[in-house]
Amino acid sequence: MPSPDAAVLRRTGADTDSAAAPYLVVEQVSKSFGTTLALERVSLEVTAGEFVSFLGPSVCGKTTLLRAIAGLDPATSGRITQAGRDITGLPPAARDFGIVFQSYALFPNLTVAENVAYGLRGPAWPRPRRAQRVEELVSLVGLAEHVRKFPAQLSGGQQQRVALARALANEPGLLLLDEPLSALDAIVRLHLRQEIRALQRRLGVTTIMVTHDQEEAMGVSDRVVVMSRGRIAQIGTPEEIYRAPSSPFVAGFVGRSTQFEAVVDAPAGSVRAVDDGLRLQAESARRLLYGTRVQVFLRPEDVRLGVAGSLERAFPVTVTHLEFLGPVCRLSLEFAGRHRLEAELPPELVRTLGALPGAVLDATVPADRVLVFAADA
Amino acid sequence: MPEAPLAGAPALPAPVHARAALDRRLLVAGLWIAASVLTLGLVLPLLTLLVRAFEDALGHFVGLVNFVAYATAPALLAAAWNSLWTAALTTVIVVPLAFGYAYALTRSCMPMKGLFRAIMLIPVLAPSLLPALALIYLFGNQGMLRGLLMGESIYGPIGIVFAQVFYCFPHAALILAVSLSMADARLYEAAEVLRAGRARIFGTVTLPGARYGLVSAAVVVFTLVVTDFGIPKVIGGQFPVLATDVYKQVVGLQDFNMGAVVGIVLLLPAVAAFLLDRWAQGKRAATFSGRAVPYVPKPRAGRDGPLLALCIGIALVLLGMLGVAIWGSLIRFWPYKLSLTLDNYDFARFDAAGWESLLVSVRMAGLAAVIGAVLVFCTAYVLERGARTGGTLPGLVRFAATVPLAVPGLVLGLAFILFFNHPANPLGILYGTIWILVLNSVIHFYTVAHLTAVTAIRQLDPEFESVGASLKVPVWITFGRVTVPICLPAILDIAVYIFVNAMTTVSAVIFLYGPDTKPASVAVVHMDEAGQASAAAAMAVTILAVTTGVKLLQVATNGLVDRATQRWRRR
Q1: Following CA atoms A257, A261, A263, A268 in sequence, which dihedral angle do they give, to the nearest 10 degrees?
Q2: pTM flag (> 0.90)
């Protein structure tokens, strides 16, 4: 949620009336390239000041949707309105947005200052005002001492910030980020995404980011739009899409999990694995009929382990493999000699349990954490 | 937290009518301009040529009669055969020599590579007539080294092949140098680690890596020889080839229909070669991946020594031919009075146009360079960056842009007269003016210029225009502030390429000049025909001086251009 001072800086709408009139509305938008359908009747709403991420595997349509919103590749059908104005068929220059591309697309022959000032032209921007605005922006992104340099003389992270400053120069109502961090190495990436988020909060600019990195999407977004094969699979807060995925696709795509086929068993609220008969209590299986085939997903951190005989409703597992990852250890587990499970637990607990390869332990999963999806859904 | 939106309206969504921005309309307009220039300068003339081959002198359709007449005339068939075998022989001689030279430039540590590279380019700057004239000085009826031929005459296949070797050498060497410079060091390291000997590495890594370059080089040389007009005209004597046949039919016999038939016959090997080369280029591009590590040669006397000797030998021959031509142009009366004089440069004594023809050439080449560079670059830009408009027009223009490479200059020139000289054509007013020469030169050298422009534009980030649009900056401002400054070196390359070729070409313009617009290269042919070999050589040397001057000017101004527009490349 935006910080309190954001309301002061924000250009469009206040928190109170934003719920009544969303800032950006995408209705039934489709896009086809020749005979291939890249987007299929996509609908979503973005509130003013919100940070939304489009998340999905490659060619899921997330970049296509972003480019339709920007007008770079206009939608084939449907309607897009921004701040109450129908922008579906408008060329990019008639819309109100700033964009940062994966490659940054900085003009290599112009200095940092010239790049940032690129869109500040015409009678509205006399020279002194333009210079002042450029100064404002470069200090905003922390590049004040680099204004005379050319992009090739900057690091990847610095180039990214120049692109951001350039996109924000005209005070656009909407900021579009197309995989803005994927060209950077891991450490710069983490740092920069926090910086982008802080900047976005401060300016209160409505932002849409396309990414294939779920950690990135969950880390910075108010809401995440998970996409798959040209359709929206789920829209929700990071916690919603992780804890309550709406489909097997989302459950499998977001976060780590182990999955297996099962059928709904008696008593109500339990499932039985098809291949090895493993039985689990599952809250979400209560509304399904006995005998329904289901897919079950288990998050590694939800698998509780204990010394054999210490846990209720537990099943015995054998540790087959152990990975030390720093804050946690990842364990590969076997049930009945075949079923592979994954569990994550802190190294201290691994030590107390003696969970080394070969050890036999008790495992259990809380009934409200077992994710169950009917197979035909 | 905002709630997830509800599903949209149940009715089918309406299709979107995207409103075209002014930017886009401008790009489309540019495309139409390019399309009309290529239609007027290429498509319609070639179609006219094609139609005329099936008509009699009165314009009646006669089907294949002309072709039958051609196929049953032994003299004409002999010319076709002569063209083919001299071209094949030249290719067999040039490609290995050029390979050795290019190998030395790219894969050895011999000294003075820059100098050898510069010497190699001399024949490109000279008209093809220059080596032919030099050979006549050396081995002609009054040649100093005539005895070396052991009774054979230089006027004929021997002279043609020798002169063509000189003329085609840089074209083959350039292609092979590019192809050999793209070597992946990792392949050589792998081969060495697997204990392959030098010969085995050469056979299994080097040659396969260069094989498409070899195909391209062979194809280019073969086409150059088949389609060249200047050399066989000057040194061919009574030895008929296709190119001189077209000239004879049109200028000598005024038989335009038979000229068109021979032109089409001349077009066939050129088109076949063009297709073969396109295939090889496609293959070649795929063999060198972006992740390859460039190969850097290490010094080795056993390889560098012989290669240096080969390069010195070739460079001496190239410089020698040039030297003989220059010397010959300064001699009072070859070979009897060897005192030096500038009389041969007083062109008015030999040809009515005098020095005027050089001015015509410079004006024509200059106009073609400026107009051509602007047209080619803008068209390539529109094709690369505006092609999202879809439709068949961009595809057609893109195809048309690659066709001129397959059309010999002589055929294009003939097509131009047939089209522009047609009584019903309102564009006939161009005929005899300098503008028809300019249009012809731009079209004739279009393809290479187009490919240079496309390569330069493709190196730019594809999102520059999108960024501009998002910042509400019109596309022409982004074009002027970003695209053109970054591509300026490539644009200058295109201009100089068109200028040099327009200065030196004979074949494309020999049918098209008017009484006041005779280019210098045609004057060389005329003076040679009139028996004024020294004056012809002098004019050829003058052309070479102009092209060399322009090339040197380009090298000199490169520093300035770089400082003005390429400062950002330095880190």
Answers
A1: 0
A2: no
